Amino acid sequence: MAAAPKTNWYASRAESRCALTATRRSSMASTMSDRLGSMQFESSSEGRQKLKRIVYGAMILVAALFLLPSTFTYINPGYVGIVIHRAGGGVDLHPLGPGIHTRVPFATGIEEYPVFLKTVVLTRANNEGSGTNDEINVNSVEGQPVSLDVSLSFELDPAQTPKLYSTFRTDIDQITHGFVKQTIRQALQEVFGTEPVADIIGPKKAEATTRARGLIAQRLQPYGFEVKQFTINELRAPAAVMEAINQKNVMQQQALTAQNELQKNTFQAQGDSIKAAGRAKAIMAEAEAQARANQLLAQSITPTLVQYELTKKWNGQMPQVTGGATPLLQLPTAAKP
Q1: DSSP state of 145
Q2: pLDDT for 54-101, tens place per residue?
């Protein structure tokens, strides 16, 4: 029977120590792992919270930067701002003046209207006005078509701008090229439709312009428009009408020239007649004066005066005569008593 091997207790003890050490190390590693895992979880949770705070802060900052321009509004000089309430659709009765103003973002809007002098040019030319054909077309009393280039200068009453916006719900350029243009056309048609084309192109143009301006001002005034000036810059009629008008003007000018020449000749004849009458009167007066002088002279010459004058001029010598006759000198005899 074989003998049982001997156990070395030193080896067993060493192995036991190694096993205990390994167990302790394993336990320590597990504890460290748990702690590290817990720290990582806490770190991850805390990082997520910080990240959320950063994201929320960035979102708030972006929203503030986005809303800030909508919170303030600037009205340019020469304009007023109409405050529009988008929720209810109404407008404030009092417009905003030039400068910076606050408003509720997205809930209110601002529409600027000019209150300085503004001129609307309605013309056929492409280099004026809107750049398109905006001429006004009307008809004369004969039915002849007439096209016009006009201009209207106006100012808006600031207090009336909210009412103007409430009525048309658009900007001032759309209003001027819509409602204002139509008002001008209607006024011109009412005026030109009662006059012959030759008159409105010629002698009655100024009168027609004044009448049209009055109608335009009257109809725009309730909307806050103050008409400062209205001008008809050019009138155009069909070529045949213009030729007939020109011929008529030439004939009238010729008739006027002939009338002026006749008046000139009449005045000249009247002048010559007056001059002749004056000369005749002067001659008559001179003749009458001469006759009177001769009469007075004849009355003053008497025989005594003649003898006296002869005596004054006698030099004491006998007159020298041809022939042997003795000259006789008749001397005045004394008057008998």
Answers
A1: E
A2: 877 777 777 666 666 677 889 999 999 999 988 777 899 999 999 998
Domain boundaries, the chain: 73-113, 117-237, 242-295
- Give residue-wise pLDDT tens across range 153-191: 999 999 999 999 999 999 999 999 999 999 999 999 999
State the architecture of 117-237 in CATH terms.
Answer: 2-Layer Sandwich (3.30)
Q: Give the containing element (helix H, strand E) for 71.
A: helix 9-71
Long-range contacts of 71-78 (CB under 8 A, 24+ apart): 71/102, 71/103, 71/104, 71/105, 72/100, 72/101, 72/102, 72/103, 73/100, 73/101, 73/102, 73/103, 73/110, 74/99, 74/100, 74/101, 75/99, 75/101, 75/110, 75/112, 76/112, 78/114, 78/115, 78/116
Q: What is the pTM of this model?
A: 0.58
Residue whose token pair is 């010559």: 272
